[in-house]
Amino acid sequence: MAWIQIRINSTNQQAEKLSDYLDEIGAVSVTFMDSQDTPIFEPLPGETRLWGNTDVIALFDAETDMQRIVRALQQAGHLDEQSAYKIEQIEDKDWEREWMDNFHPMQFGRRLWICPSWREIPDPDAVNVMLDPGLAFGTGTHPTTALCLEWLDGLDLEGKTVIDFGCGSGILAIAALKLGAKSAVGIDIDPQAILASKNNAEQNGVADRLQLFLSQNKPADLQADVVVANILAGPLKELYPVISRLVKPQGVLGLSGILETQAPSVCEAYEQTFALDEVKVREEWSRITGKLK
């Protein structure tokens, strides 16, 4: 199917309203793109963080009368004489196939591979986790997930128990189980994450060793030898009392989802009860690990 898009240069104050209006007048999808290549980082609670100068890109069926769309935007006050916009035809492609072609098996550490189901396994003798991108966060492509996977690969997990706090797709818990952990628990606030983790565990043959809980339903006495939490710096600091209590005596902790500039404040919270290792950094993101004192 052919498509046409309109790209409108907007501001962080107006982009959300513009997006809502484009949905109302028939846009198939609306996305934001930073027009100054400024990275988007951690939002404040309840905040939708945009950029100082934001391009709003709306996709329409190619048969749409785009002049009618422009007139509607002008009449609604979203375009004026100073507004910059561009209308572009989009090449008709099999986007799903193109996306699949660009998702490859990835190696983490010495033993661990994350492989999409439609690709051939590069090393049948390695520890292979079969995982397809889906609605829940976590496929290994983000530096924070990669840092956590490499840390797990470097641990002796044989016979250990593991908690994946903020499990998302379940990738860390599943990887730990396939690396030798006796059992694992995944915890998340999102029911979609619990479902995705369950499905991915079944695909990898480890569902019988993985328990999943919404955060509010986790057992009060829950603890494990290894706890990993790949969320964000703010929640990690706020949830220090909760996360630290999950670690058994002599257990180890791995934290990520933390920008390099945020690592000192997270370390300050956790060094009260953990002997921390040197912070590991990759592409502006960091991983904090340590052992319970």
UniProtKB/TrEMBL annotation:
One GO CC term on file: ribosome
EC numbers: 2.1.1.-
Main localisation: cytoplasm
A Pfam family of this chain: PrmA
Catalytic activity: L-lysyl-[protein] + 3 S-adenosyl-L-methionine = N(6),N(6),N(6)-trimethyl-L-lysyl-[protein] + 3 S-adenosyl-L-homocysteine + 3 H(+)
Transferase recorded as keyword: yes
Taxonomic superkingdom: Bacteria
InterPro entries the record matches: Ribosomal_L11_MeTrfase_PrmA, Ribosomal_PrmA_MeTrfase, SAM-dependent_MTases_sf
Positions annotated to bind S-adenosyl-L-methionine: 145, 166, 188, 230
One BP annotation, GO: methylation
Keyword entries, A-Z: Cytoplasm, Methyltransferase, Ribonucleoprotein, Ribosomal protein, S-adenosyl-L-methionine, Transferase
Subcellular location: Cytoplasm
Major enzyme class: transferase
Coiled coil regions in record: none
Any one Gene Ontology molecular-function term assigned to this protein's record: protein-lysine N-methyltransferase activity
Cited function: Methylates ribosomal protein L11.
PANTHER family cross-referenced by the UniProt entry: ELECTRON TRANSFER FLAVOPROTEIN BETA SUBUNIT LYSINE METHYLTRANSFERASE
HAMAP family the record matches: Methyltr_PrmA
Family to which this protein belongs: Belongs to the methyltransferase superfamily. PrmA family.
NCBIfam families: prmA
Protein name per UniProt: Ribosomal protein L11 methyltransferase
